[in-house]
């Protein structure tokens, strides 16, 4: 009898451990795939747990550098922000992990991929659309959407019982009354007590950032340098950091200490539900502020407007799981073209939750101090402005006449 | 001989005082118009100064309530923000003052209106397009764009000399090395030492907000209530405030004490120059944060996207001086329609430069806690998500096939 | 034993007759609903057929006037056009029929609604989203998406056999090698030999319009009058027609005789497939041409641009089945506001497939012949254009300098 | 005494001949520049005329190939269309001619450029913004905007008198009661009797296209092949044409004979006036129809939508004279990226004003006949559509609940 092989996106937690066991019951061979995408996890312990439950293999891959350079950097360069506030930390991780899943499936000749994402969320969509884009022939099994599975596991109690019956070790730490998802870019919190959007997030929820009120009284000053819209160095005092992963970890540390990058929002999920989420994204927030500043400084006014409309589109694509879609790929290429000119340095001060822009400079900005100066005429003839205004007024005067007609 | 009559937008400062005198030289009758739009000004002293110089009349009008209810409230409701960051404080004041100028011109049968705005700035455009929209027959004289005037007054020294020669009193306070413009909504700073975009704004520049580092260690909690997207009450502790002007002044006070609403940006002026501006907008910033939160919470996902595209357009219209344009009027009406549903309360905490959203509630939000809950199925069948994803994947799989073809 | 009641959108054809029988087999009570939406159909014969098969009731409703005034008129007013070419004839009919289905379900206390639309098409989506919008509690049964049904009826032969076995009369006319859907606005053709997008549509396919080559050698001239963007009269020679349904039927007749409104396109279905469709839309095409002409003539330039962006959005909403969605309702309201000003008359000549615009007039247009005249200065000072151009050139000159820097 | 040198965009007509003489009076050295951009003109005669009046040199440049390959082809590839109808024939010619003017100025060390465009039109803007983009240091003299010139030449009579006084030969053909502008792509007609937008264009106005009613009774069939969105061949019967200029001339001939590509519209000029124009664009119209068809056929649905939004922006840029602007250059690059996939053949039939699409094919289209076929399941599971619809319905059902709340 041939056995079907499934690559399971394994987290080490209760859900995916039970799913692993459940696949074994159904005579699948299960290879667990874990991406180290910067979450705080004991990967070796998780490996042992999976092997003990019965995984035929556990693949652990450090994708942090790839995550930073191919996904986070692209998001910063593009200025991605969902519904005016969310920096897309989870959305960016999913396509990155999917690449690992598909690669693992190919290397192990597995036809199936599985994950523990639920049926109401965005992550199922992001995983699956990414996987299908990368390999249209792969088959995905999402147990939390299978009648057979959900009928058997109606709640956490059923999972705990199943774990206990099957010798699956369960963490002794009591589960927090919310769920979370972590990676190098952010931690997101939702569900449980957060489902009431008027409930305040408790202060002990945050793991990545200090409470701004408990942050140091002394601010820190840094400089972030961009080339073509991508961060290339971070300078703190005399130290200059150029390695992307190091830079990002450093900014997470600084931002975390100073309580930077927390938001509490409701958002519209792709499937049409509104949900409430609390996020902390220290490095991402700092870089977003710096990049926005340099971008408006560098880009031509009208190019900026085109780019903004593309950024809004791409933010939706990425949130909805369309990273590898034709439109996702296309718009990213267009944005790279726009960012060619976004090169320079932004000075920032970070203090108790705030990221203040102090100044910026660029070797190629279209900013022209002589031209704008109150004290110089430069190539500017003030009387031209009269014509400019008068011509713009033609249409407005006509409209006034029209309004008097009706 | 008949004398031409001009309404001069008078500030009490050096420039408009010299312009007043210059008009008198040219045999105009000059009526000075001053709008009290919330700036810190001794209006009575300014009146005496103008009369002394030779104005035939000085009209001082308190437009603060009109400014808040017709302009600021509309901007908050619409979520206006220019180039991702600027809350448009000056841009909103110009059409409000223009209404006063045109009214004053009509009441005094004056054919001319004049102002002291410079030829490189946005304000000349905002004033003039607003005035022409309201009265296509008015004639506007902008001395700073007249060869005759600029040849005579090439710099501040020429103005000081002219003032001294003509008995125009000059403030003994030395001029700050930047220019500023203030109203109830904000103070803007530009020019002078700020013209180098890498120069830090000096800490003594800010007049409306305390340095966040010197702000109180205790945060303050407030609740802001909106109806149809408009602020209707602010609650601080046991006190509830419902008068628009009072609410706005109160939020300015709270925001000012806690160092909220400062930004340092470069922006693209309408006429195509890039300029650097520093702004402080305490109440505006608090309301913008609160409104954005409630809006995403309340509005349907797709309606929100349409509204966002309209808001981006309106932000440009307002910045560029097209408040009274056909497109400005039209888009405002559309936004009011969208905002019908934006009703509810947002809880905020204000602390050393930060405005944290703590929670929100609404009697009419589309948020459905049961539907989104991880613990309830409500009207949701998880297997539907499979079909949803598979259908969305069709296009992506086809694209993968295409890519293998080329 | 209680019997479940289903309202079946009945066409009288083979598919829905078999579905009717199939429901009876499954012990449903079936009420057949037929909307007379202008298709060429013998409704009485269809009624007898349904009753003979076993329908408990057949409801036939003439919705033509409602279709024209609430759906077609709205589409003309909004200028709806999908992917640059398709006038949305089928898409507009579906929400109109859905209103009838839901009303019928309410009046007959039926919980279920069913239709014969296939699983790959747009119409299933349009029917169901419309019904769910109007009544979230209704249950929809789409047999062509049920495993049980599709396994049994794998092709047309199975349906013919089932009909024959169950005494369901079958049309003796051989089926055309394509499928079609007709209503007052258009006939659409797809599938069969049209599935190859390089195959030419055969000349005997078209039922609503004459081959332009066989159309009369004499053109016809008409005038279409609009108020607030809605057609209010059509004048042909001395005759003036004001009843919406009559006007539309008349324009269909004229357009049909002169071979107007045929298109052959591929389009992107909502579910992500590309399909090929051939359409004929005589009256709709004539009105679309006339409305577009009057709209650009009447509306302010910038209002027109906002309206165009809303029209593009609404075209997608309508095509995808979101007529009754929040965004559909919202955008329609915005468009009505824009169209307030679109009032006037357009002169057209119709000739062998062409609709030529000959001229237009409006009592309220912003067109100002004096202002634009080469022979008059009107309120226009040519030297203003110099300033206008020079100011616009600032940004371009700066960009030239930048390009020389890099 | 040094003489200033001016490059005059010379047409051979009355206006530019008088301008030439006027410059000579003002002691300028004048070099006349004529671009052969496909207009029907006796260039040699014009050269002799200019030399006789006193031009120091006449430069005649055949830019037809450059015009087709760099401007017209780009417009076809981008799908440019202004305000839903105008194919931008004049707008595309202006930047092409400006390149020649600037090159001529550089080669002859001239600081000045001049043209005969009027102060109310678009062409002045297009010429000057193009020139300033290409050389920020050039000075442009637009006599029709100079007080000195317009005061002297208040109308045609003054020009005729000046010509007669100065021995400038004047055409004996009486001037048509409208003005026209011609190039390889189109002829535009405006002004004079066309200024009343309700006046019909007289039948003898059209020079490039036959009256459709007088066109041949036999249609012609052609095939147009595109690669990456650019036309690469036209096939008529057995003949295949591959040279861009030849292809375009051939299509003009075919389209002209069959009366294709006439429009009568009002449009919004950049400076805010509404004007009425009549255009004939035979080859451009044929190619636009063919390209649109292939584009929707080839491009991914969502990429098409992004591209459409860019095309709308670019159409405005080009109309307004911003061909060489940063945004113009940027958006063109983005569109080229999108068009990579637009490769294939479109079959057309041309008949008495109509261009009918008969079919299309592509080696790389995303069209998948198997997938869309009613007769095959392919990789499609009909039950997935149920989930797709149900998930989309969530939001609509919630909105229904909300509406019942208010």
How would you characterize this protein structure?
The structure is a homotetramer of 406-residue chains. With 406 residues, chain A is α/β, with parallel strands linked by helices. Chain A folds into three domains: 5-175, HUPs (Rossmann fold, 3-Layer(aba) Sandwich), CATH 3.40.50; 181-299 and 342-361, Argininosuccinate synthetase, chain A, domain 2; 373-405, no CATH class. Helix content of chain A is 44%, strand content 20%. Chain A has helices at residues 14-25, 43-53, 64-78, 89-107, 123-134, 147-152, 156-165, 244-257, 282-298, 301-320, 326-339, 369-372, 382-405; strands at 5-9, 29-36, 57-62, 112-114, 139-141, 179-182, 187-190, 220-227, 230-236, 239-241, 262-268, 274-280, 344-351, 354-361. In chain A, strands 3-2-1-4-5 form a five-stranded parallel beta sheet, with helices on both faces. A five-stranded antiparallel beta sheet of chain A has the order 10-9-8-13-14, with helices on one face. A four-stranded antiparallel beta sheet of chain A has the order 6-7-12-11, with no helix packed on it. In chain A, helix 4 packs across helix 5 and helix 10 packs antiparallel against helix 11. The longest helix of chain A is centred in the last third of the chain and has 24 residues, at 382-405. Chain A starts with a strand and ends with a helix. The B-D interface holds B 300-302, 341, 363-364, 366, 368, 371, 379-381, 383-392, 394-395, 397-399, 401-402, 405-406 and D 300-302, 341, 363-364, 366, 368, 371, 379-381, 383-392, 394-395, 397-399, 401-402, 405-406.
């Amino acid at each position: 009898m041939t056995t079907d092989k499934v690559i399971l996106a394994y987290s080490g937690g209760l859900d995916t451990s039970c799913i692993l066991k459940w696949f074994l019951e159904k005579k699948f061979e299960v290879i667990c795939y874990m991406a180290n995408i910067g979450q705080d996890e004991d990967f070796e312990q998780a490996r042992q747990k999976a092997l003990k439950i019965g995984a035929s293999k556990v693949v652990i891959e450090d994708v942090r550098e790839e995550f930073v350079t191919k996904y986070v950097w692209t998001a910063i360069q593009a200025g991605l922000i969902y519904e005016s506030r969310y920096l897309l930390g989870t959305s960016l991780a999913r396509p990155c992990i999917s690449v690992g899943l598909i690669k693992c499936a190919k290397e192990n000749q597995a036809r199936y991929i599985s994950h523990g994402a639920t049926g109401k969320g965005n992550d199922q969509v992001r995983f699956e659309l990414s996987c299908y884009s990368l390999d249209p022939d792969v088959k995905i099994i999402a147990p939390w959407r299978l009648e057979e599975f959900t009928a058997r596991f109606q709640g956490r109690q059923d999972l705990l019982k199943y774990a206990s019956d099957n010798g699956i070790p369960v963490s002794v730490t009591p589960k927090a009354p919310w769920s979370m998802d972590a990676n190098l870019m952010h931690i997101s919190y939702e569900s449980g007590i957060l489902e009431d959007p008027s409930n305040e997030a408790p202060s002990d929820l945050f793991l990545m950032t200090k409470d701004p009120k408990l942050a140091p009284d002394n601010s820190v000053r840094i400089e972030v340098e961009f080339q073509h819209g991508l961060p290339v160095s971070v300078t703190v005092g005399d130290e200059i950091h150029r390695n992307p992963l190091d830079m990002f970890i450093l900014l997470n540390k600084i931002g975390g200490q100073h309580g930077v990058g927390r938001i509490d929002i409701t958002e519209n999920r792709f499937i049409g539900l509104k949900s409430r989420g609390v996020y902390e994204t220290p490095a991402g927030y700092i870089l977003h502020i710096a990049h926005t500043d340099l971008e408006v400084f560098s880009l031509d006014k009208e190019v900026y407007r085109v780019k903004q409309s593309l950024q809004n589109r791409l933010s939706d694509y990425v949130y909805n799981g369309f990273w590898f879609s034709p439109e996702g790929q296309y718009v990213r290429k267009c944005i790279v073209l726009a960012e060619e000119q976004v090169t320079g340095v932004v000075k920032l001060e970070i203090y108790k939750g705030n990221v203040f822009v102090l100044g910026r400079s660029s070797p190629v900005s279209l900013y022209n101090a002589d031209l704008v100066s109150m004290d110089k005429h430069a190539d500017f003839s003030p009387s031209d402005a009269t014509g400019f205004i008068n011509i713009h007024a033609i249409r407005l005067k006509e409209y006034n006449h029209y309004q008097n007609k009706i």
